[in-house]
Each structure stands twice: as structure tokens, then as C-alpha cells.
């Protein structure tokens, strides 16, 4: 781990109320897919009791050689200042952190059960595994209210079309989802077992809002998953 001062290269809206930030990559920086960094604003124009630092996962895999974060833009002092940053503005980065990374045994399936912006570390892990052509069977349940609310959905759909090892199951929970033909409603045991034949076998990765992560943990336990094979990354206050 180390501290860096890095510049913003560009920012873009990638889903409803969701922004991606592209940062300068420090020369000597390395990280594992799934890890995150602490981003601290420098002399922000406003602050609040939550402080000037937030943890953001790296969206891209190491082999993609880009430093990108993404977040829902809520009405907090930190997010207002972050959203108003312009290319060339600097922040402090303390990274890398975290052990929410893909397991090494390629014969053991990986099943991701993800809500919303919890996709950020998972997109990194899946992209890196596909780039390295590992043999992990990967299944991603990806829950959002609507397709417009789902960061990186089209990119993940393209990955799934190109790679036989990767199965994408997008799930929409909202009422206004248009002509959606995929899974709808909340992920439950019946949905899980439609797509995962041997529930006890995979290693599971849960990422998203804290309440959803806890609910999915209980669902997996009830469905027969091995609790030692459930890994979690909770996104609180994003």
C-alpha cells in the first residue's frame, strides 16, 4: 500500500445517477482485480461529518491498465465535490486495499450475486479472468431496478456473448422496465437453482447495498450453499 496524488482524466455518466471517474495511473501502482482504494478530496469546498475520504473499488482489471472508479451520485458534500471535479484536479489515493478477489482453484465455479453499484469490483474480477483465459465457470446474477439503472450492463452482455465460461443473468426489480425479457423480481432460491445446478459447489461473491448482501447471505445458506464459501463486500453510504 502507498499514498499517491493523482489527477482526474475524465468523468462520464454510465447509468442513472451513476458516474465513472477515470484517473491518472501512478507509475509504480499495481493492484489485484477486486481491490479498492481510499480517495481523499484535497481542500474541498465543503465537507460534512462523513469526512473527505471514501473507498471506491477499481472497475478495470489490472491488465486493462486503466484506473477507473464508479459510484452512485447521492446528495452528500463528498459526492457534490467529487461530481464537480474537472480534468486535471487532484485527489489523494491510498491503495490498494482488500481481499475480495477471485479464488485460484479454476475447477471451482464462481457465482456472483450483485446489486447495483456493487458491480464495480466484480467487473474487474470477471474482466481479468476472461483476459487471462482462466477456466473458472463464472455466473453473475446482476440485480438492478431497470436496465438504465444498471452500470456496465451492455459491456457485461458483450463479455458473456464472447466467452463460454461466463454466464450473465441480469435481474430487474422495478415496475417500469419496458420490454424486458430476462429475469424479474428479487433473486430468490428458485431463481438461484434455475441457473446453478449444484448449489453446494461454487464459491459465492456478494456485493452491493448492506441489506441486500445480508439477505443474499441468508438465501444462500437456506439454499444449501457452504457458508465457508461465501465472500462479501458491503457498500454502505455510497
From TrEMBL:
Q: Which Gene3D superfamilies match?
A: Nucleotide-binding domain of ferredoxin-NADP reductase (FNR) module, Translation factors
One Pfam family, please name it. NAD_binding_1
Task: Give the FAD-binding FR-type domain ranges.
Answer: 1-103
Name the InterPro entries for this protein. FAD-bd_FR_type (IPR017927), FNR_nucleotide-bd (IPR039261), MRET (IPR050415), OxRdtase_FAD/NAD-bd (IPR001433), Riboflavin_synthase-like_b-brl (IPR017938)
The source's domain of life comes to: Bacteria
Q: Where are the transmembrane segments?
A: none
Q: What is this protein called?
A: Ferredoxin--NADP reductase
Tell me what organism the protein belongs to: Lentibacillus halophilus
State the taxonomy lineage. Answer: Bacteria, Bacillati, Bacillota, Bacilli, Bacillales
Amino acid at each position: 500500500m502507498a499514498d499517491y496524488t493523482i489527477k482526474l482524466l475524465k468523468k462520464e455518466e454510465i447509468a442513472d445517477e451513476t458516474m465513472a471517474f477515470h484517473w491518472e495511473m501512478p507509475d509504480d501502482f499495481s493492484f489485484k482485480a477486486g481491490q479498492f482504494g481510499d480517495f481523499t478530496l484535497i481542500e474541498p469546498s465543503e465537507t460534512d461529518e462523513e469526512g473527505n475520504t471514501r473507498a471506491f473499488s477499481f472497475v478495470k482489471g489490472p491488465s486493462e491498465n486503466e484506473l477507473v472508479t464508479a459510484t452512485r451520485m447521492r446528495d452528500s458534500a463528498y459526492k457534490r465535490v467529487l461530481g464537480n471535479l474537472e480534468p486535471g484536479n487532484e485527489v489523494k489515493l491510498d491503495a490498494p486495499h482488500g481481499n475480495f478477489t477471485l479464488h485460484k482453484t479454476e475447477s471451482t465455479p464462481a457465482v456472483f450475486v450483485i446489486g447495483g453499484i456493487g458491480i464495480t469490483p466484480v467487473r474487474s474480477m470477471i474482466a481479468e479472468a476472461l483476459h487471462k483465459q482462466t477456466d473458472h465457470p463464472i455466473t453473475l446474477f446482476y440485480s438492478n431496478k431497470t436496465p438504465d439503472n444498471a452500470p456496465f450492463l451492455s459491456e457485461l452482455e458483450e463479455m458473456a456473448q464472447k466467452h463460454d465460461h461466463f454466464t450473465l443473468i441480469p435481474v430487474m426489480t422495478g415496475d417500469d422496465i419496458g420490454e424486458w425479457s430476462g429475469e424479474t423480481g428479487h433473486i430468490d432460491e428458485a431463481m438461484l437453482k434455475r441457473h446453478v445446478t449444484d448449489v453446494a459447489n461454487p464459491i459465492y461473491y456478494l456485493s452491493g447495498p448492506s441489506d441486500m448482501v445480508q439477505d443474499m447471505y441468508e438465501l444462500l445458506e437456506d439454499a444449501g450453499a457452504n457458508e465457508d464459501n461465501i465472500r462479501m463486500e458491503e457498500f454502505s453510504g455510497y
